[in-house]
## 1
Amino acid sequence: MPSPLRDPGELSAWLRLVETPGLGRSSLRRLLTAFGEPRTLFERPPAEWARVVGPQGAQALGRPPEQLEMLLERTRQWLKEDRRRSLLLLGDPDYPQALLETADPPLLMYLWGQRELLRRPMLAIVGSRNATPQGLDHALTFARSFSESGYCVVSGLALGIDAAAHEGALSAAGGTLAVLGTGLNELYPRRNAGLAMRIVEHGLLMSEYALDTPALAPHFPVRNRIIAGLSEGCLVVEAALQSGSLITARLAGEAGREVFAIPGSIHSPLSRGCHALIRQGAKLVESAGDVIEELPRHSSMPRDDTPADAALPELAGAGEHQRLLAAMSLEPVSLDALQARGGWPTEQLQALLLDLELDGLVARLPGGLLQRRMRG
């Protein structure tokens, strides 16, 4: 298939096809199966279209989208501005095979960054936007381990777990791929714009939506099928019972991918989604090695069997600090409960907790709760 950059007519035909209102992706794929390429399709009479998608579908195809010329010029200019920008078309040689084999592969995707990452094995990490400090730590450390194992870490650039997963992969100088629910000119959320630019440098941004598509709620569950489809497995770090992360996990399972979940406190709403997945058959994991060993691709990474609740590093000359850590589990706990467990005077307990916070071993949660943290 010729490159859209070398053949503006082909680019115009692709954009006209994917932006035609009233036709779903399954109808568009049937048209491509029947006619081969969009330009060939539009050279045929409408009666032939109707035999594939019916009279209404043929009528929709006969009306070019109102903004087609503007979209074409905008896309051509965007591609010219940065050599790291490209389009990925259904049928391209480097279209990921895993995604191609899913029930609903995208027809056209906009790419910005290191396109060669499409040839890497991929693992998805997803979870809550309102993650706990411990959840963020888990996402970062698991992503770092996956990256060191040769996997490209896939997520959705959202706040919370997604961002931590991208950061973890970048910290290991490994690749990470962010699938957006907006156009690539409308990075969302804005707070992650700096992270997105670092991903352009060392990873890849991907979207099936036209460049200036804003953040629309229905788009995010739809893009989750791409995160699931690209990946050999999907790890859910923290998730409420009603969350987009569980949608991604369900889509991964339906696509025949391995689904993994990290267990958490029975008192935390953000653990309930993971516990529900485990009850439904997801694999409970405590280390990156638990994930890697379940995947078909062998890795050279030494297995990390350190459990999520392993003993924390010693603080030199700090016996009371160690005693306080021993009194805390990974479950959130109140100040009063800690005081009852250890008998510390309030002033001393506050001082000990402050030291541990500064050392990254304790986090304060909403509602006055405290939680022990694992350091990667």
## 2
Amino acid sequence: MLLGRLGLDKARIPHSDRHGLIFLDRGRLEVEDGCLRFMTAGGGMLDAGDYQIPHQSVSIVLLGPGSSVTHDALRILAAHGCALAAIGNDGVRFYTAPPLLPDTSALARRQVTLWASSQQRIAVARQMYAIRFGEEVKARTIEMLRGMEGARLKRLYELTAQKYGVPWHGRRYDRANPNATDVPNQAINHAASAVEAAAAIAVASTATIPQLGFVHEDSGQSFVLDIADLVRHDVTLPIAFGAAKQFMKNERENLERLVRTRAAEIFNREQVVARLIEHIKTLLEEQVSGYISTSQS
């Protein structure tokens, strides 16, 4: 009652009018004189300095390595509906995040509605396939779609390996021991982890439901895996095979580090998180105003 009477429930800037994401690393996020500030000695995304953070006009702060945050900063972010996520360099890892409290539940409700209908669920899955491969399909079941996906992926692996000049003997993955395979497969495993982190950031940023996937089912991150797969062809595999090629030139390098470094460069250059957010909105046909933008700062 008091919130309504005081107008505090409408005091926040709608997420549709905010500037989306802001990346910070190697510094301290704190409050000074009621303002959110980020102090850094440099060496990361920002030059050394004391920056005032416009927490009322961004949707989520992505806090990278070498950073700390005070209790007061968390309080200020929560009061203004700005989420905070702890991430790896340029989003190659997603560690934890308090939930984003969006202006509306419309996107999550739309996801539930589509997921709960077998007919609409396969329609969304087909749309995912079209985004990935640029081809509309008429598959009537998820199983049929997975079979078509497997054939396309097999050829995609072969073509990408040829492009980067990396020997390829097929996709092999032992869940119990992911490193017990050849270099290209290990690189794909590491790249997939990085891209899944970017997808997790996108899912958290849109406050959609990670468990409700349209193609994936069993994982608690099924929707995250769905979204990560949307860029397997033009992000995950170029990261993996590019890093594998570099590793084969100098096997004293650390393969996982090479993959992470390459992933960070591609994520930053191609605005991968923003692209994934737009994919989520497109797939769920979000029509309600008042949701987050995807511009990055």
## 3
Amino acid sequence: MTWLEGLQKALQYMEEHLDEKLETSEIAKQACLSSFHFQRTFSVLTDTTVGEYIRRRRLSCAGQELMNKELRVLDAALKYGYESPEAFTKAFRKQHGSTPSDIRNGKGKLTIYNPFSIQILLKGAEPMNVKIVEMEGFQAIGKKRSFSYKEGENFREIPRFWSEANGDGSTEALAAWNNGQIRGILGICTDTNSENKDMNYWIAAASTKEAQQGYDTITIPPSKWAIFAVHGAMPDSMQQTWKKIYGEWFPTSGYMQVASPQLEVYGEGNPHSANYYSEIWIPVERP
């Protein structure tokens, strides 16, 4: 199964099970990805989370069924996983701007979110600079925090994490300890076993030294890496490159991402400069 087929299968699975309890781990299995990698891929491609997409689709379906008088309000609430009509009405009004009763009585309008479909973008004007490199495993020293994808917590809190690390001298210390295979400060994205959080994020540096107090170590396994050059000011250039990787490169490359840490590598210089250079490292394999 190709990368494209896997994502489409996951979308179809969600659509067919909207009126059942959906676990992200089970959805990710349809795409042959870990829960972490599927959620990250999904959020980069769609600018929304898996949970938010499911919520929008459920409320869209509920609205259409209420408009056609196929369900009572209570039945719609129960069908689409709400514990009470009150909770359902609150979520329904937030999306549609009308109450379920209004819609069933022929009043108000619906805001419908149609199912996503994955399409290949054929673009040649701006080629991607990528190389495939095999590398032995290595150790990195850094600081770690856990984040959730819910309500965009990761998008809000990771930049704050960087601001804190830059302000308290952590990135300067890491730069001094950076004697490993990769030069630069690393943003490392990994899976987490926490029930409440979806990802671990490290601000780190490749180093053979022992971790000082307040820092931990992480071992990056041997991997075949797809390394993408990123040119331009942060954070826009990094975000746009992630989108091109998932929207353009993976669908046509023949590679699949591996359930292993992903790296953002930040070099020296002014990160807000139009000439700033950084990299994205993704572990890959041929299916």
